[in-house]
Amino acid sequence: MSMIEKSFEIACEIYQSYGIDPVKAMEKLENIPISLHAWQGDDVVGFENFETAHTGGCQVTGNYPGRARTADELRADLDQVMALLPGTKRVCLQAHQVDKMIPGVDRDGFTIEHFSSWLDWAKAKKIAMDIAPCYYSHPKLDNGLSLSHPDAEIRKFWIDHGRAVRRIAARFGQELGSASVCNFWMPDGFKDIPADRYTPRKRMAESLNTIFSEKLDEKYILDCVESKLFGIGVESCTVGSHDFFLMYAARNNKMICLDSGHFHPTESIGDKLSAIIAQQGRILLHVSRGVRWDSDHVILLNDELLSIAREAAVYGYLDKIFFCLDYFDGSINRIAAMTIGARNLQKALLIALLEPTELLKKAESEFDFTSRMALQEKIKTLPWASVWSYFCEKSGLPGDFEMMQQISSYESKVLSLRK
Ligand code: RNT
Ligand code: ZN
C-alpha cells in the first residue's frame, strides 16, 4: 500500500465520523466540468495578426518564453495541461484565437471555417468547447467603445461579430454534444467622468437585443453576459456594469457571468451565487483573482476561492454553475499557470464536497452559532489533502509539485524553442 493510499484510508475514517464519504466526493469532483481558458496560453494575443493584438481593452504583462504563436502550438500546450489535470475538462476560446484567417474576412464575418481545426481537435479529444466573442484588441474598438459606440456603422460591425460567434458556438455545441457557453464581455467605458452614462447603456442594451434576436437552440448554445467594475483606462465608468448586466440577464433570461476579479476589491462573489440562483437560472463563473487594479492573476487556494467553491457546491445546484478559468500571467510558465489554477479550483471544490454541511446546518437551525463556528474552524484542518493526493494518484497523475517535472521537461523540449 502506498503512503498516499494509507493516508487516504485514515482520512476516510475521519470523514466518516462526520458522516461524509470521500469516495462520493471524489466521484462528484470527477464530473464537474472545468472550462480551461485557452487565452492563458497566448497572452490574449490571438492569431489574427500581430498588429491588432493589444490595441486596447485587454492587457497582459510578462514575457516568459513560450507563448503559443499559432493555434497548433496552443493546442499542443492545452494537450499538455489536460494531461496533468484530473476530472472533466472543456476548453474555452476567445474568438480571435482563429485557426486561420481568410483574406478579406474580418471578425464580423467569422464562421465555423475559421475554427475547423479546433473542432476536429475537440472531437478527437472528446471534449466540449466554449467560445467568447472578442470585443477588444481591434481597431474598431474606437475610443474604448464597441457595442455602445455612437456610430451605427461601428456598432453594426460588433453586432455582426456577436452574431457570427453565436453561430460558431451553436455549431460547437451541436457537433460536440454539449451546449457551448458563449460569453459576452465588452470593455466599453470611460477613463474619466462621463457627461452621459445613460445613452451608451441604452445603445449597449439595444445592440445586445439585436444580437440575441436570432433564436438559437439552448441545447447547443448558452448565451451569457459578463459585468465588470473597472479596468485600466476605464476607471470612471464601465457601460456593462454589474447592475446593467444583472438586470439584462434577468429580463432576457440570459446567464450572468460573475468574474471574481470584476468587483470592488473587498467584495466577494461567494455571497452572490445563492442570491441569483434563488431567483433565476444559471451562473457562469469566471474564476480569477484580483490584485489591486488587476483582475486576472492566477488563482490561488485562498479564502475567496474556497468561499466561491463552497457556495457553488453545497446546496445541490452544482449543475447550474458553470466554471471557466479566467486569468492570464505572461511572467511565468503558462502551462503551469493554467494547471496550478485549475487544480486549485478542483481542490477548493473537493474541500466543499467534503464539508459536513448537514452538521453545520443543524447547529444553525438550533441557533447554536457557537458550535457552528467551532465546526467551521475544525473543518479547515480535516485531512482533505490526503483525499486530493489520492484522487490525483488514482487518476494516474503526479502531485501538485511533482507535476513540475513534466512541465519543466515540456518547457525545455518545446516552449524554450519558441523564439
Ligand atoms: C476581462 C474579462 C474577460 C476577459 C477575456 C479574455 O476583464 O474578464 O472575460 O478575461 O475576454
Ligand atoms: Zn472574465
Salient structural properties:
419 residues; binds zinc ion; 12 strands; 42% helix; eight-stranded parallel beta sheet; TIM Barrel; two-stranded antiparallel sheet; binds L-rhamnitol; alpha/beta
What's the end-to-end separation, in Å?
Answer: 46 Å
Class from helix and strand fractions: alpha/beta
Q: What small molecules does this complex bind?
A: L-rhamnitol, zinc ion
Number of strands: 12
Strand line-up in the sheet with most strands: 3-2-1-12-9-8-6-4
CATH superfamily: Divalent-metal-dependent TIM barrel enzymes
CATH architecture descriptor text = Alpha-Beta Barrel
Helix and strand string, N-terminal first? HHEHEHEHEEHEEHEHEEEHEHHHHH
Return the domain count: 1
Number of helices: 14
State the gist of this model.
The protein is 42% helix and 12% strand.
Per-chain topology:
Blueprint: H1 3-16, H2 22-30, E1 34-37, H3 71-83, E2 89-94, H4 116-125, E3 128-132, H5 152-176, E4 180-184, E5 189-190, H6 198-212, E6 221-226, E7 237-238, H7 242-252, E8 255-259, H8 270-277, E9 283-287, E10 289-291, E11 294-297, H9 303-313, E12 321-325, H10 334-353, H11 357-365, H12 369-379, H13 384-394, H14 404-413
Parallel strand pairs: 1-2, 1-12, 2-3, 4-6, 6-8, 8-9, 9-12
Antiparallel strand pairs: 5-7, 10-11
Helix pairs in contact: 1-13, 2-10, 3-10, 5-6, 8-9, 9-10, 11-12
The structure holds L-rhamnitol (RNT) and zinc ion.
